[in-house]
């Protein structure tokens, strides 16, 4: 007689063999968020009991109250909704600087990766200038290009361009030589290789790089806005800092984080849609 | 020079540093001839293939393809590699159509449809039993299917000379046989073909006209190593199929 064994149950949460269910993942994923919010609410409440005028940890109702005029009411000075005007001008600078850098990096990196002659001339230079700390250039940019939009966009460009170029260059160079020979023997020209074979193959990787560069771009944007600006999310944070207005700073930081998160997510979805083959090739 | 030769290699030498890899190679391949380079690893099979492709150039001697010296890679020869032959970002159908599109259309415009070539591509995919996989990407296919697509892709542009570098090396024996039957049977059997194998015997590779047996030249440094002749042409009559392959019907080689 065979023993009546129970079917094996896979581990759900603990150990290296664990395969959490989807609702496990959802709950576990939300847990840190809930914890941090609860912790903050508790700390804020505790400080309020001690000192009702505390400015360091404003409660959520205080933040809503402080943000209300910025989000919902036009400013008496120029009739703009401050919060939305800040968001728009910041995003415009970010989009302009990042996309210009992306297009330039894509083109230069692709050509450097494909043409050995250009590589010999441009590669050491790009490697060298990628070592310049972009923020150290900020005074120069403001002096030469002015404190208007151009200087800020230029900072974001300079901050993200060398790294993206190098990454695109490495990705292009990593394409097997066989693909070039294949293209040429099938009757393609050198430019056909560049733009119909190499470019589509590196695009998903380039979008990944773009995504990662957005983090750095935010840094340069906030820095530029903090130093010389008349609007923008970074400008507002540094402006209200003088009044210890944590009830405005915290929602602004949360908003910036949310925008960054959504941009990242949208770019990932876009890359998956446009290049469905990429995930499969990489998993091999 | 014999005008019937699609490929003629004369007195070709190639060395890397002090190491002589190809020592006075002579080889003539006529139209419709299937030629197999066989030899141990390091004997220069792939080097010869790279010279034929124009990826590298010989130190001395001449390589004439279709009446013109071999230069950088161009549509005068097709190539099937063991790996990386297919474009990973294109579906099977687009991969097979790549030759037609790249050679006939401008790179900066969206690909236009070409009814004749598409019908031809589909007929070829049908013969190779790949029609069901037409819209898949290469990474979704097995190794054997990928190799079939790669051969269809190379045959699509009807190159005067088809080169294959260990095209069936990664395949299981059954698939390998099927692929060879297909090649012999294909409407392109008039193409001269060169392929290389990493085996020392001709066993298991029975569809050839010539087997060219290459041996290691001067890379064996132990005392008393003989300098063997660099290249031998083994004609088909010297390489009868072995007993264990008798179950395969041998296609006619003399059409």
UniProtKB/TrEMBL annotation, chain A:
The chain crosses the membrane at residues 26-43, 94-113, 125-147, 209-228, 248-267. Gene3D superfamilies: MetI-like. Its main location: membrane. InterPro entries: MetI-like, MetI-like_sf. Residues 87-271 form the ABC transmembrane type-1 domain. Pfam families: BPD_transp_1. It is a multi-pass membrane protein. PROSITE patterns: ABC_TM1. Keywords: Cell membrane, Membrane, Transmembrane, Transmembrane helix, Transport. It is found in: Cell membrane. It comes from the Bacteria. Belongs to the binding-protein-dependent transport system permease family. This is ABC transporter permease. It comes from Rheinheimera baltica.
